[in-house]
Amino acid sequence: MNFQLTEEQELIRKNIREFAAKHVEPIAAEVDENERHPVELFKKLAEGGWMGIPIPTQYGGSGSDYLTNAIVVEEISRSCSSTGFTVSIQVGIVCMLILLLGNEEQKKKYLVPLAKGEHMGAFVLTEPGAGTDVMAATTTAAKDGDFYVLNGTKTFISNGPLADTYIVFCWTDKAAGRKGMSSFIIPKGTPGLIPGEHFHKMGLRSSQTSEVVFKDCRVHKDNLLGKEGLGLTNAMTGFDHGRVGIAAQSVGILQAALDESIRYSKERVQMGSPIARHQAIAWMIADMATDLEAARFLTYHAAWLKDQGKPFSKEASMAKLFASEKAMHHTTKAVHIHGGYGYIKGAKVERLMRDAKITEIYEGTSEAQRMVISGNVLR
Amino acid sequence: MLDIVVCFKWVVDEAFIRRTSSGDLDFSSVDYKISEYDRNAIEAAVRLREEYGGSVTAVIVGAPEAAKGVKDALSRGPDRAVFAEDPLFRDLDPSQTASVLGQVISSKTPFHLIICGEGSGDVYSQQTGPRLAEFLGIPCAAYVQRLTVKEEKVMADRKVEGFIEVDILPLPALVTVLPDIATPRIPGVKDTLMASKKAVIKVGKNELTAVPPPLLKTQSLKAARVERECEKFTAEAEGIKRFVAALQKRGVLK
To answer: What is the pLDDT of residues B74-116, one digit of tens each?
Structure first.
């Protein structure tokens, strides 16, 4: 068993850490406060090839692997988890789905600009009445000759207001049940595709989230991503990949919570000594460091399995479940360690705690992860 | 066309050095990095190549584990690397490093200009560059913050106490540079992946005529300790009065 990253992975980690310290950390509080998508930052990320790490170079990517992508999402999230998540969803779900399911023409047309970071992508599945219960979706794509006509409302769509490329899931044959959903690639500007306004959120505020409405949106059959009727399977494939990214994002949040807690507890003096020397605080930090290591190993293992071409669905869910719940638990502790100072706007731990909550919810709630895991182990 | 050699050192990342309770330095879990000023030197070399054409060869003397440093350096733009590699090269003193660099450079890579960082991030003796110039018998300018090349000459702006001195050196020449020379780039993903595909010429100890005995010997390493009194002052009138009084008491203010 080899726990050693490759030299390239270690160097890439150092480089993205330096990049994040220089370009991400200084604006993280501001983009959170103003709910701003930092276009200038994403341009820099694109220039460095950070937006298409596991995508082959012939499709505009950097030609690396999924583990390296997880490391990069982790390190960006350590500074700003909104930015880390936006990279994660773009690469982990949108790019990967087109890479795995798209035909050559779709890859050239849609994947290349996405992997180069020139375009932004969105994964359009959730509906007002269909979260964990994907089958409760109501958006339909009615066949009309060589075309499909989409109608319905999607919600909580990350990158919804600004995406160039939408991957949309809807019923092409509701009566066929699990074989009745299909996935489409739809470019922005398609008549009838109506992105909504950015939602104001508790955390992850610079990530742009909105409704996406389809009103008689007519798309050619060439826009089908994968085969008709396999939408649900495709969505699950997207989730498997995406969950590794959310796990990595959670690891980044956890690492930041630990960094901040160590720094503050060594500085803050109470009752004559730094609070780090008080056992109550030291043990919180010990637990935080231990869970961080465990979360990181689960995450890297899931990514490594993916890179080896092995099944990784269960491991991705385990990593996502564990890392996100520990991120929530320990960011709360990190605020606690900071006391009143941690509760004030502008304290990094305050942002970390708000950002952590969503990791337990999106791309499958903790309960959905437990369904996947139990489904696997009870088989 | 300008063929440039840039020398770099693979040093302990000081962020990972721990201090034991006895004051010794604990290197057991350290990571390594390209010495800070050398990163600027590499960037300067690559920019000069972009401006004047030619090539950049990164040269390092180090132990086998510095192979990662070679990749790191190559990801920053040089065309190739020369790696003088031996476990004994882990702790050379500046005279030895200069001798090995000199032998390697003169036998393996023709050059017009050699660029070194002003001093290394670990011991910062500032000797290797000038000693290397002496070994090769070429002119040398230290503390350089700007370089211009024209008609077989290099113009070097040297930042010396209180003023800037401009030297003109005939090529081939060696300069040691300050961080102002160029801000190092952060390599992108492809830069790092491509680095593995660039040529690395390895030179073993047995290919050198001789490595001279060290002129310096490190006897011990101890962590510097700054005793702090941890006295805190507020920004209110009373606090400021106490602050001034404290400075006077310690002779900082008279």
So the answer is: 999 999 999 999 999 988 999 999 999 999 999 999 999 999 9
* The predicted structure's pLDDT at residue B230: 77
- Whether A62 and B190 lie within 8 Å, measured CB to CB: yes
Q: Inter-chain contact A50–B33, Cβ cutoff 8 Å?
A: no
Taking an 8 Å cut-off on Cβ atoms, the answer to whether A48 and B188 are in contact is yes
Residue A338 CA to its chain's centroid (Å): 28
- ipTM of this predicted complex? 0.91
Closest by CA to A251, choosing from A78, A24, A369, A89, is: A78
Q: How far apart are alpha carbons B140 and B118 in whole angstroms?
A: 12
Examine residue A2 and state whether it is found in any structural domain, yes or no. no
Instruction: State how far residue B71 is from chain A, nearest Cα, in angstroms.
Output: 8
> How many interface pairs between A and B have CB atoms less than 8 angstroms apart?
51
Residue B164, token pair as written in the block? 């800037």
Residue B189's contacts (CB-CB under 8 Å, 6 or more residues apart) are A12, A48, A49, A50, A53, A62, A64, A68, A72
Say if residue B179 is in the same domain as residue B58. yes
Domain span at residue B238 reads 228-254
First CA to last CA distance, chain B: 60
At a CB cut-off of 8 Å and minimum separation 6, what does B84 contact? B59, B60, B61, B62, B100, B101, B104, B202, B203, B204, B205, B208
CATH number at residue A69: 1.10.540.10
Based on the fold, state whether residues B76 and B196 are members of the same structural domain. Answer: yes
Q: Which of A231, A256, A284 is the last residue of a domain?
A: A231
Q: Which of A127, A260, A325, A363 is catalytic?
A: A363
How much is the mean pLDDT over chain A? Answer: 97
Q: How far is residue B31's CA from residue A374's CA, in Å, rounded to a whole number?
A: 40
B77 plus B119 within the same structural domain? yes
Q: Is A363 a catalytic residue?
A: yes
Domain boundary among A104, A120, A136: A120
Q: For an interface test with B, give the residue of A6, A7, A62, A67 to mutate (most B CBs within 10 A).
A: A7
Is A118 strand, coil or helix? coil
CB contact under 8 A, A8 and B186: no
Q: What is the DSSP letter of A148?
A: E
